[in-house]
Please model this.
Amino acid sequence: MSKVLIIGAGGVARVAAFKCAQQPDIFSSIMIASRTKSKCDTIARDIKQKYDVDIETAAIDAEDVPALVTLIKSFQPKLVVHLALPYQDLTIMDACLEAGVHYMDTANYEPKEEAKFEYKWQWAYQEKFKKAGLLALLGCGFDPGVTSIFTARAAKHHFDEIHYLDIVDCNAGDHGKAFATNFNPEINIREITQKGKYYENGEWIETEPQEIKKVLNYPNIGARDSYLIYHEELESLVKNYPTLKRARFWMTFGQEYLTHLRVIENIGMSRIDPVMYKGVPVIPLEFLKEVLPNPGELGENYSGHTSIGCRIKGIKDGEEKTYYIWNNCSHQKAYEETGTQGVSYTTGVPAMIGAKMILTGEWSGEGVFNVEEFNPDPFLNELAERGLPWNEESNIDLEL
Ligand code: NDP
Model:
């Protein structure tokens, strides 16, 4: 039915391409374009072997707007699904505007020279996309993405007012490596070494990195140390659900991971300013990424589950109510289906579904949108069907 152009060829793009290829009636033609064409070719080869679907591939520098426009115009997709890095959000949005196609991503824009993510840069494109009659859908992975759609379901079906939101993200998997990140190491380490931040009573409160810790219980996993960090969907959820009195994000980290992270910071390897090495400027964190395990290749011996969800307190029919909605995903099952691990899977599947919502017209509009602004029901039906079944419970102890 529609052509789609996927940009990026990492673990997330691999999963999204596999899931698109499973539905040729929706995604009639797929191209994967990325900086290193051989990585696109590997994904295309594996999809051909598994599903007998042909995927086109191309080399592209996603920071080069004219090159992007030429590529988009020659392939003529209806939608560009950006699964490269957050640094390229704005150049790809510019190219989509110029070529007249819809845009979607899974992570908000981050300037390379400063570890800081905010929606302001992308929200500033509102008028441009409206005027062009195009849709830009921001943050359609798991978190951001499904966590915001879980919140939209809670608001639509379970509450008159949402007051307290805690997004809880647990990776209880074991990949057998001393230290590895589950998605792009550079983006991941930038995110985790930032200060924490949460919203309470109309204000944003900053904390030191990993300053606030709680032990939370996760379904079918058990108790895990969970740390308050800042995560981008908090910004749009606080804006779109003004009844929120508090919104926080928790992520689990093991002691081994935190020790490695502390050492990386202490020895200067998380720096994002260039240092001169043998006369060549080198950014320590970019170099570190090259020597760490590739997150897309962690899958083979990865055991255990992820568990990501929303714990919500609010009012329904004048009564206080608690509600928990979550998905557990098995790393091994993700690997068996797509050749990569659960974190790439939990991001790539929602990315495919977001693309499907746009291509089928289930989600439509002109301008820049966050996922919670659309009807959560068709998306969540698909999520359960396409490999990420979810669960919900009401009136339980949220531990928070
Ligand atoms: P990877 O690092 O594995 O893949 C990134 C890909 O982007 C690589 O193929 C890389 O090419 C390509 N790329 C980088 N720079 C450029 C460029 N200038 N032009 C073209 N291609 C480029 O990352 P992941 O697959 O793990 O993650 C992909 C995205 O998903 C990231 O933005 C990440 O933040 C986001 N994410 C979102 C989550 C969510 O739940 N919302 C969770 C996890 C990730 P090369 O191979 O040449 O380096």
